[in-house]
Amino acid sequence: MSFFIADALAQEAGAAAQQGDPLLSLLFPIGLIVLLYFLMIRPQVKRQKEHKKMVDALAKGDEVATIGGLLGRITDLGENFLMLEIAEGVSVKVRRNAVESVLPKGSLKEL
Description:
The protein is of the alpha+beta class. Helix content is 42%, strand content 26%. A five-stranded antiparallel sheet has the order 4-3-2-1-5, with helices on one face. The chain starts with 10 loop residues before the first helix and ends with a helix.
């Protein structure tokens, strides 16, 4: 009846081989965390800082593109919101953080 149960004959030798330097066994997980930081977290934080700097530098008259795809000229700035003129006589209020990029002057005339 022992053919259903595997024999554990080499347990002592395997346990001795497992005993090693504990610092060396932590090296791989620590390396993965460092790699994750440099490949994912650090670039994202850098992009967030650049976006915040761009949003803080917005000024009246800037031509911008929003995350939703609206293109327009800033007509009024508030602390959290701005008025965006998307067509002559048509203005919408959007959040400042919704601005994706500032377009070069004259970009709206080309469209």
